[in-house]
Each structure stands twice: as structure tokens, then as C-alpha cells.
Amino acid sequence: MALEYDDVDGPALLSSILSGGAQEWFLFRKDDLETESTPEDIGPSATNRAAIVKISVPHVFKTGKRMYRMYSTENTAKLKISKVGSKDSYGFKLEAEWFVPGLDADVLGMGVMAQNDKVFGIFKLMNGKQIQVGCTISSGILTFDFDSGEVEQGGLGMTFKLSAYDKTVRIYEPAPQLTPEA
Predict the structure, then answer these.
(1) Which of 48, 99, 134, 154 would disulfide-bridge 140, Cβ 3.0–4.6 Å?
(2) What Cα–Cα distance (Å) separates residue 132 from each residue in 45, 148, 154?
(3) pTM, to two decimals
(4) How many CA atoms lie within 13 A of 63 on its CB side?
(5) How far apart are CA 116 and CA 112, in angstroms?
(6) Which run of H or E residues covers position 107?
(7) Nearest to 143 by CA among 167, 119, 124, 168
(8) Whole-angstrom Cα distance, residue 133 to residue 121?
(9) At 101, is the secondary structure helix, strand, or coil?
(10) Chain centroid to CA 28: how far?
């Protein structure tokens, strides 16, 4: 049975529509995944509309691998999802952006390593929802810019950006896996 359209109501609580990204989100390497969990495919076997965007089973990582926590200065993280493609082949471009203050060699080194790697991100919104950026068919691309800032205005730090294309938007419901897989 094909999915049917239904009414779309507004949010029950204002806290569910808080804007912006949280101060932490999570990054992981495609090569560290044993099994990627995915939403249901759109089609006759889909059980409901939410199932075609929700990931309810955690990803399985290879032994010793996990997700990595990333910091963002308060009120600087954001996620933009845009439609791309043409009729009969629409998809989405997901773009996450966040700011890390200072010029810490370890943070800079993480950026240099990840910019040439295939990575995914779990971007945590202020309302607690988590959106996955990147998937096995379109890994995320990580870039960063450094800005010295200005004496009176501040701004010394790195702006990181993670972008990917996908056929759907993926809401990641499990808790991030911060403990290495046994």
C-alpha cells in the first residue's frame, strides 16, 4: 500500500522549534562503519511517512571505532537543507556549519585530516533532534576556513563546513556512539 498524504499540524510545544545548532555534534569516518543504518525506502513497502526519514537503529562500527564529539561556539552552528536536482530526480544538499574559537593545533590537525577523508556528521539541533549529514552513497565533504578576527570584534578561530547530497533527510534517533565498538 502506498503512503497517503495527511494533515500536517503545527508543533505542540515552542521548544520543539528552537532555531540553530547545539554546541556539540558528532563526526565519524565512512571507513569506520561496519553497517550503516538507514530509513525505510520510499515506495509501496514504506510503513509511514516518518519511517522514510528516521534512523531508529544505531550504526554498527568496526572494532575499536566510534563517533567523535565536535565542539561549536554557542549560537554559531547551523544546518541548511536545500532541494537539488530536477523533476523526477530531486534530492537534497545538506550543509552544516560551526565555529571553533582559537587556533588549537589539535583542532587544526583534525580539520586537515578530515578534509581529505570520507566523513559523516550527526548534527544536533537546539530542539534535540539529530540530522545525519552524509551517507554511504554520498559521504560528507569537510572544509574549514581560518580567520584571525579583529582586535575589537574578536572572531579568532575556524569555521568548519560539512556538506553532502542525499535522496532523503535522515533523522538519527539513537544516542551517538562515543564508546569504541568492542
Answers:
(1) 134
(2) 23, 30, 31
(3) 0.85
(4) 1
(5) 7
(6) helix 105-114
(7) 119
(8) 5
(9) strand
(10) 10
Q: What span, in angstroms and rounded, lies between the C-alpha atoms of 29 and 118? A: 6
Question: How far does the chain reach from its first CA to its final CA, in angstroms?
Answer: 40
DSSP for 120-178, please give it.
Answer: EEEEEBTTS-EEEE-BTTB-BEEEEEEE--BTTTB--EEEEEEEEEESS-EEE-SPP--
For 63-94, what is each residue's pLDDT tens digit?
999 999 988 888 889 999 999 999 888 999 99
* Residue 42 pLDDT exceeds 60: yes
- The H-or-E segment that residue 113 falls in is helix 105-114
pLDDT, tens digit, 9 for 90 and up, residues 109-160: 888 888 889 999 999 988 889 999 999 888 999 999 988 888 777 788 899 9
The C-alpha angle with vertex 140 and arms to 135 and 145, in degrees rounded to 5, equals 165
The predicted model gives 149-178 an average pLDDT of: 90
SS (H, E, C) 12-58: CCHHHHCCCECCEEEEEEHHHEEECCCCCCCCCCCCCCHHHCEECCC
Contact 27, 137 (CB under 8 A): no
Buried b (16+ CB within 10 A) or exposed e, 72-105: beeebbbbeeeeeeeeeeeebbbbbbbbbbeeee
Contact present, 69 and 124 (Cβ < 8 Å): no
